[in-house]
Amino acid sequence: MTKTLRLVSILIFLSAQLLAQLHTPVFDISRYGAKGDGVTKNTIAIQAAIDACAGTGGTVYLHHGIFMTGMITLKSNMTFYISSTATLLGSTDILDYPTQILPTNNWNKQENGRGLLFSLGAKNLTITGGGTINGNGNYAPWTGFYIDELERPIPLWIVQSNKVEISNLTVKDGAMWNIVPFETDSLVIRNVTINSNIAANRDGIDIVDCHHVLIEKCKFYTDDDAICPKSGHIRGVMDIIVRNCEIQKSARASGIKFGTLGYGSFKDMLFEDITIHDVKLAAIALESVDGANIENVIFRRIKMKNVGCPFFIILGDRGRTPVGGPHKTGIVKNIVFQDITATGVTLNTGSPLSGLKKNGITYKLKNILFENIKINFMGGLTTIPPFPVEYAGQYPEVTMWGNTPAYGFYLNHADSVVFKNCNFTVSPVDARPWIACNDTSRIQFENCIPGKFKNEYHSYHK
Question: What is the mean pLDDT of the chain?
Fold first, then answer.
């Protein structure tokens, strides 16, 4: 047998093996007229394959080509399989993405919008295969802020769906946030790489008012926030596990950020075994400025390198509410940080943790634990800045107060914050103490290095 024939035989064998792995029946988009030349619009052909597959438990199969398309709508009881030989490429014609008006009063910038891969109310849906979803978001009109978020298509937008798996994919160059599960429950996102560092407003995964979510073994290289739970509805975000992930870059924002939009709860969440590198602002930011309750959240075994600051927590009130929803001020309590290291901190802000005082009422952060934390903070200040003014409703960011009066932690309106087995250093030498406090109670230190921490705290307590 010639070498060419052997190669053909191997390819036929491998193709047969792959087809045997796909859930049957298999709906090959090429049989519906799709062409993988990167130029032909395949919206009608791919949608026809999806419509035929819906409800069968079978597979829509993309392979060997670059398939350009506008919005396509996924259905229940099916697998959408993009093989490693295929790319789903978003059209650059905005008319190929009809605006979707969602049946919700969620005001988290997703009450309507546009998507490339879209589902509404789907059940038992799998999106997988080893291939690539390219949102084509480096198209010039979409790379600036002058086109509203709602006008730019989300590469993967899963709405009010249930039992969804997204796995073994690369998602790149989104025109908007890249993966947006919205009011979707029982969701698994596994082995997904997001590479979207082309322009502003390209978040990695935005978990919007979802319950029962597992995100694992994912990689993020983004311009904006990498992992970003949001809430614009009273149902909130609950029961989330994020583990074994790599945040490789956030060019202008944070690694893990709760909010900024947040009305319902962020509750019962675990983030573990994560690396966070090359993040401009906060590695971890918890922001409740629209009424969200952030409670029972654990961060553990996290390694940070080259981040603006390790932690940022803000409780505030911007006065925003959903249509028909009551105004409320949020809560931040029961937050645990364990086994975390940080090197290469780049900002002099320290890590601000602030509650809120408004109209004579104080809303304190409560029950926060830092255990087994080792950080080398950025120093170099020769004077101690004044204590910051109260939060006044501006867009919350770790840089909004400038340099705080502590190189490590600035605590404002906080109760029961414990530092246990911590080692905080600063370089170069800094005039500030490691911690500065305003309106705090029950601040505790256990086995911290150096031993002067407690004295520093008492000497710089406003």
Answer: 92
